[in-house]
């Protein structure tokens, strides 16, 4: 049905590595894979296997769960998008960490489930958040640049007519000189 790879950390693993909960849900206990260092796994590549056909209105959704926390949606694959590399933004462990003498320790998990495509918010949640953060940081950079040239006319800020051209030229030149500059915006 599906397989996963943890880039730079594992060989391809098929569905047999996961524990099947029911017909449409599987869970990978990260303790068996990496022990308590689950949060060192930052990405997962999930892919549909060639002989599996997922209905066009369905998706394989990927979730992560830190110990004691609820599951968090990370993204999905579909028949039209049969593979994806998804970021794993592990949440901090939840408050339900207290153990009793007979309780097994809680562990991090990766869950996969077949779901209606229409019910999923986006196929790649982390990519959308990165784009949003990038846009906000670029906007903040532009605002700060404009503010340094502003004059005040009553309750309005007045900027030179060519301020956007000047900012964009400076932004491009800085990006060409320092390849790490743009990476700082994406963090």
Description:
The chain is an alpha+beta fold. The protein has helices at 30-34, 125-147, 163-177, 179-186, and strands at residues 2-5, 13-14, 19-22, 25-29, 43-48, 58-65, 72-77, 83-87, 109-116, 151-153, 156-158. A five-stranded antiparallel sheet has the order 3-4-9-6-7. A four-stranded antiparallel sheet has the order 2-1-5-8, with no helix packed on it. Helix 3 packs across helix 4.
Features:
five-stranded antiparallel beta sheet; 11 strands; elongated; four-stranded antiparallel beta sheet; 29% strand; 27% helix; 187 residues; alpha+beta
Concise account of the structure shown:
By secondary structure, the protein is of the alpha+beta class. Helices cover 27% and strands 29% of the residues. About 5% of the residues have low confidence.
Number of helices: 4
Helical residues, percent: 25-40%
Extract low-pLDDT stretches. Answer: 96-104
Order of helices and strands: EEEEHEEEEEHEEHH
Percentage beta strand: 25-35%
Number of strands: 11
Protein name: Hikeshi-like domain-containing protein
Domain Hikeshi-like C-terminal: 131-183
Family: Belongs to the OPI10 family.
Organism: Ilex paraguariensis
């Amino acid at each position: 049905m599906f397989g996963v790879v943890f880039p730079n950390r594992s060989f391809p693993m098929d569905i047999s590595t996961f524990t099947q909960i029911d017909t449409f849900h599987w869970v990978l206990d990260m303790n068996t894979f990496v022990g308590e260092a689950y949060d060192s796994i930052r990405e997962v590549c999930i892919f549909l296997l060639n002989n599996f056909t997922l209905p066009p209105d369905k998706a394989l959704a990927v979730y992560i769960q830190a110990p004691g926390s609820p599951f968090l949606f990370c993204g999905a694959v579909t028949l039209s998008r049969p593979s994806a590399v998804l970021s794993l933004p592990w949440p901090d462990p939840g408050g339900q960490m207290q153990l009793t003498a007979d309780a097994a320790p809680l562990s991090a998990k990766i869950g996969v489930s077949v779901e209606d495509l229409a019910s999923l918010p986006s196929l790649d949640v982390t990519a959308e958040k990165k784009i949003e953060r990038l846009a906000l940081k670029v906007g903040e950079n532009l605002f700060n640049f404009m503010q340094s040239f502003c004059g005040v006319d009553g309750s309005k800020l007045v900027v030179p007519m060519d301020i956007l051209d000047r900012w964009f030229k400076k932004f491009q030149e800085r990006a060409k000189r320092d390849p790490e500059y743009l990476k700082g915006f994406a963090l």
